[in-house]
Amino acid sequence: MRSLSIAATGMLAQQMNVEVISNNIANMNTSGYKRQRAEFNDLLYQDMRRVGANSSEEGTIVPSGIQLGLGVKPAAIYRINEQGSIQMTDNPLDMAMNGKGMFMVEMPNGETGYTRAGSFQLSPDGDLVTPDGYPVQPGITIPVDAVGVTVNANGEVWVDLDGQVDPQLVGQIEVARFPNEAGLQALGDNLFAETRASGQATVGVPGQAGFGSVLQGAVESSNVDMVKEITNMVAAQRAYEMNSKVISTSDEMMRNVSQMR
Amino acid sequence: MESTNYIALSRQASLRRELDLVANNMANLNTPAYQGESMMFVEYLEDTQRGKTGEMSFVQDISTVRDLKEGPMKRTENPLDLAISGRGYFTIETDDGPRYTRNGAFQLNEEGQIVNKANQPVLDGNGNPIEVPDDAQSIEISEDGTIATEVGQIAQLEPVTFENEQLLMKRANGLFEAREEQVAEPAEGARIMQGTLESSNVEGVVEMTRLINLTRSYSSANKFSESEHERILRAVRTLVSSQ
Q1: Chain A residues with CB-CB distance to B212 below 8 A
Q2: Do B21 and A68 touch (CB under 8 A)?
Q3: Interface pTM (ipTM) of the complex?
Q4: Cβ contacts (< 8 Å) between B118 and chain A: which residues?
Q5: Tell me: the pLDDT tens digits for B2-24?
Q6: Hey, are the CB atoms on A7 and B78 less than 8 Å from each other?
Q7: Could you report the per-residue pLDDT of A21-45, keeping only the tens digit for each?
Q8: Cβ-contact A247, A4 below 8 angstroms
């Protein structure tokens, strides 16, 4: 029975929908997390009675024919790269991107990872690193005797040294931008990798044309909207139930047949 | 004279196909811009030995009818999610020629083109794929379909429509194929809404009631066959015992 497998595709789709929603909810407090959405498309159509077929010898044609759809399939799960809200933390090494651009991080395998989660820390050597200890690129070292760190909107890192009046420039934070951010591959730990779909990274200085600016002492919260997620979940659950109803209906019809004498 | 059974069977066969249709509507409850379908049944008359007065009436499903009602609009805040308010379709370029869709869940591909989820480019009013410059930070699409970035206008989307939309053939991924004689005309009164997706216009409650109706009709057709079977059985027994 075709309806059984059609309803099964519907249930699988809704299950995936709930999985995506639950991951969003689980990450609602992850800094720099971008919510995801599952998108569905209808499957192939079977032409039972072709549109435009002759319905009589006089040449009249069937106006719209019978096309039976064969269910639904997941089309994409994609990230919505809307800016998350900015949360002030007053930690001088927390940096939020306001606008386009991702911080670059050197991963243990030597490749560059990209992230929007700018809650950085200092390594024992004074290097600017992520909470996992991955150095931020290009390497920025804060001198041990620094008493204050200032990062301006353009990503320049200035330090106040004990006994010196003028702040000293110790580094420049560079950020990367992609033609299609939705095409980045998520690696977990708030990190993303470049793919063919994302396009080549354009590296630049924050505040430049096309790049957002850096906000010190703040982190970007996730852009998950709780209310939206819950309503989506309710909708997904109902859709799941309705599809299961189709299955029980098909079952009932088959039982009817098998009980015939 | 087994035609009673055949009549019941014609009903059951059509109901089964209708169930497939309802199942597909339900499966696509969350597919953007999906339009629900229903089946159109007609009577199929056949002459008997008694001529025109004793015609037998079978049931036949002749076509599926698409519900062209606009689905509810859902805000997504994604700049490349577009919905059409009013009649109209986006034009999509595929390897097999132009296809039409109301599903405006678009994205950028690696070449910077605006594409649908199956990586097929969306065409502008002049029939060209739309390329968004690399350095664009934001994409603004106005109600009349003008696509602009901060450097200026780059293209214009022009929704199209057809004289009889029911004649469009459904293809996968929410696409429609126009038949040869169908001419795409500019859709008047169609407005493009950015950051919005048209939801599926399937109403769960309606489909549920159809489903219940279907099951009941199916089992009553079943009963019909059964009682017919008993009738013949009784007739045979009576005839046998009267000999």
Answers
A1: 249
A2: yes
A3: 0.74
A4: 41, 75
A5: 677 888 888 888 888 889 999 99
A6: no
A7: 999 999 999 988 989 989 898 888 8
A8: yes
